[in-house]
């Protein structure tokens, strides 16, 4: 298969982790006889520095022409601490989502057996957790009208949703639930918010089209608690933009590190793949950023094009790296010097040599002297 992939490394740790994902994709192309071409674009704080625009026109054009977009991370503390900044890096990411109409964001939350002890939660609570969060990505309070009064003392952000916006992400979530355990949980705040009541109405109207799916509801505050005390009860979670942002980051506690969470954002015409973690500027260029979320985003990209064996190879490589403790310091209690690049090299090597023994991998990648 030929794929033209736009690569937007962005800010902070974005470039280092994205480089590992590109490495994995190049190895996949070589092993499975595909032709993947990559074209880089500027976005975020780095784009502001170079062009005064967090989302240059050229970047949007690269994305529009591409079959898929691989995104790194966005943000910079110098903007985070300045509430008066008119131009912000995040406008780059939000602009891409809106301009390419990437309305449905899918975030898998999977508890890996090899990492259960890394979570601050109890193993018996989190073992076998496997959740898909369907987050609406181009509406709600993120994109509603924003106002600041002239005297600067009153501000508002409108949370607005249309039936159409709810329907398209809801259909996708129902279909996902149908193909899984058949349970869909709508998370909202329908006891308070009018927009949430519209979500309930629309989702209830779609329910009869999916007789195999059991639909239930949770208010966001209650869902935030249930997700931690009993995550296994969930199969597919459907929710609006901001609740999905918060819940998915909370869910990283189950998995053990936010450095593991990947995502897909899709619309009718375009698809983007990105880790859910941020730019973590203070960790940039130290070789400590976990590249797995980015590498797993590359696996989601392959799934999107039906390249399931290829995606599985990447995931097996990730599993193996976790098993052999070839992981960055956020997860590693055994070795203290495994860098971002080293994890990427390991997974690249696994893609080429999946049948190598554990011992060989350990010897090669941990620098032990004898290669059996
Ligand atoms: C995410 C991020 C973004 C969001 C930020 C960087 C704008 O937190 O993708 O979860 O809030 O959507
Ligand atoms: Mg977030």
TrEMBL record:
Residues 4-347 form the Isopropylmalate dehydrogenase-like domain. Its EC number is 1.1.1.85. GO terms for cellular component: cytosol. Keywords: Amino-acid biosynthesis, Branched-chain amino acid biosynthesis, Leucine biosynthesis, Magnesium, Manganese, Metal-binding, NAD, Oxidoreductase. Coiled coil: none annotated. Transmembrane segments: none annotated. It is an enzyme of class 1 (oxidoreductase). Its cofactor is Mn(2+); Mg(2+). One of its GO terms (biological process) is L-leucine biosynthetic process. GO terms for molecular function: 3-isopropylmalate dehydrogenase activity; metal ion binding. It holds the Pfam family Iso_dh. Homodimer. Belongs to the isocitrate and isopropylmalate dehydrogenases family. LeuB type 1 subfamily. PANTHER family: 3-ISOPROPYLMALATE DEHYDROGENASE. This is 3-isopropylmalate dehydrogenase. It comes from Flavivirga aquatica.
